[in-house]
Amino acid sequence: MAACCAATATAMTTTSASATTIEKPSSSAASTRRVAPLTRGGARVSVFFATAAASSARSRGGRHRARAGAGASLVVLASSDAVSTAMSSETMSADGAVALTRNGKKRVVVTGMGCVTAMGNDVDVFYEKLLNGESSITPITEWDAHEDMATTIAGEIKGFDPEEFMTKKMARRVDPFIAYQIVAAKKALQAAKLPFAKGDEMDAAVDKTRAGCLIGSAMGGMHSFSTATEALVTVGHKKMNPFCIPFAITNMGSALTAMDLGFMGPNYSISSACASGNFCILNSVDHIRNGEADLMLAGASDAAILPSGMGGFCSVKAMSKRNDDPTRASRPWDKARDGFVMGEGAGVLVLESLENALKRGAPVLCEVLGGNYSCDAHHMTEPHPDGKGVALAIDRALDACGLDAKDVDYVNAHATSTPAGDMAELRVLQEKFGKNPGFKINSTKGMIGHLLGAASAVEAVACVKAITDGWVHPNVNLDDPEDDVDLALLVGPTKERLDVKVALSNSFGFGGASHLALVPVRPRHNSAVLFGAYEGGGGGGGAGGGGEGGGEGSELRELWRRLF
């Protein structure tokens, strides 16, 4: 069964105090320079990422625009000039080498992303629809929602097409949560300029003994289990699908993905409710930093839009009843919010050691800075009214990364559109980050619903895109904000330009509807994932929206000083 995230986190081992270096590939378009490493330790559920290096930069009125190769533009932590000014002689040299470690801890970067959502299976299309404020919430069509069921709307994936990443026969055979994550994982590999099938190309590109999969799920194979239960009741156990158990357990997605790719490194799944994706990202980072893997597929997947899943959440009165107005049902921080809207899908990141990424000339999107977690120890489903667990997770994350609250530019909030949860989180965010110039908060769930365990993974994709593109998506359906809401801190009803150097992705959750009747006490899991801009050279970059960099040189120097 799914491994417990806290139990699987391995201790950090310091191997050397000196920085390891590597020459950048000759194919890189970026100018050669030595850059100080980001080094963070320990298992956490807050992660920071940073944007990829640019090939050239120029200063204009104190602001910097970075240009990446192949016509792509990325928002970066600092321009070449600013980084050169910020770096000390200890972390820079004329040899053009990039530091790969600091204090024995490997740098970890994101080189590819994949997603399967109700907005489509393409990361760029997905984020463009978010920027446009489009909603994917509709009446349920895959099955006849019970007339007496309180909620009959969802962020449902319709007409799922596995494309070339999986045969349609295989997609029909496995549980949807498995199909979604396999496709998302392969699309992430494709974006990372890696093969996505067994064969000579994969053998040449990846040391498969050092490549692993850590893709979580909150609910696992609910479709498989529900079908098996129905068969047991109607025709008896001898007629049950022999795959019902393998396809129901949460680790089977990671297992089948690894089997399909031939990856022989760390492989398991984490189920930590809605924070599952964050836990998988941080544990994957630790596997790389501990030297147990060079590359990890990390993320989460869930598919619980079926009668038992919807009925379970309806029974605890957790979901919106706004069935007559589906696109406006999910409304974080609005006074009229009445519960979350369920979504489904998967998000997967390709995480690599910086050394591995540079050796193969990978397109570096951002750098993972670190993260942390906490537990409310308060209530089975509701957050602590003072947000103590939320604040603790954020404080631990910042401390683990060597950052101050003032360094955070953007938060993708957990904000599920529930009466109890939204404001408890927002009050903490406003208190900690409210004085940061230009700081913004948004919630992705207003448009795609709550993807349960996959929510944090898909929202990690949104965070990285915010960094690389320089745009943050709007908050939708916020017609009548709660009195405590500081609207100046929230992204408005349309997309906004934002130079994101450090982004925080929050995810909190309880055990899930299928556990509520069985477990008398289930503490909430709080996680905060921080993403920050990467300026390291040699990373090729990825296509983006041409966002402008920003920040005065003194601010950049101070941030880099404390990071390194």
From TrEMBL:
InterPro entries: 3-oxoacyl-ACP_synth-2 (IPR017568), Beta-ketoacyl_synthase (IPR000794), Ketoacyl_synth_AS (IPR018201), Ketoacyl_synth_C (IPR014031), Ketoacyl_synth_N (IPR014030), PKS_Beta-ketoAc_synthase_dom (IPR020841), Thiolase-like (IPR016039). It is an enzyme of class 2 (transferase). GO terms for biological process: fatty acid biosynthetic process. GO terms for cellular component: mitochondrion. SMART domains: PKS_KS. Residues 15-36 are annotated as: Disordered. It comes from the Eukaryota. Coiled coil: none annotated. GO terms for molecular function: 3-oxoacyl-[acyl-carrier-protein] synthase activity. Belongs to the thiolase-like superfamily. Beta-ketoacyl-ACP synthases family. This is beta-ketoacyl-[acyl-carrier-protein] synthase I. It comes from Micromonas pusilla (strain CCMP1545) (Picoplanktonic green alga).
